[in-house]
Design brief:
The chain is α+β, with helices and mostly antiparallel strands. The protein contains one helix and five strands; from the N terminus they run αβββββ.
């Protein structure tokens, strides 16, 4: 059974994303996606307790505890 072009494109994007995520300098990463809210959560430690949140101009929230990044929240994730 041959894959459709759409499925091939999806798989290619997933492989690229996985390759890019492996370059993030963290030992562990948890990924959660809220489809209803269209929000992607990347956590670099569990539990993710942040003391500060920095919001970028493009809808990305960087969650920090002291000087360490403990997570990233991406709003409107499916539109990126």
């Amino acid at each position: 059974m041959e894959m459709t072009l759409k499925k091939k494109d999806y798989i290619t994007k997933c492989i690229k994303m996985a390759s890019d995520m492996l370059k993030i300098p963290f030992e562990h990463m948890w990924v959660d996606y809220d489809k209803e809210a269209d929000v992607l959560y990347l956590s670099f430690r569990k539990p993710q307790r942040a003391t500060k949140t920095i919001e970028t101009d493009d809808g990305i929230l960087i969650r920090k505890d002291s000087n360490k990044i403990v997570g990233i929240t991406i709003l409107d994730a499916s539109c990126r």
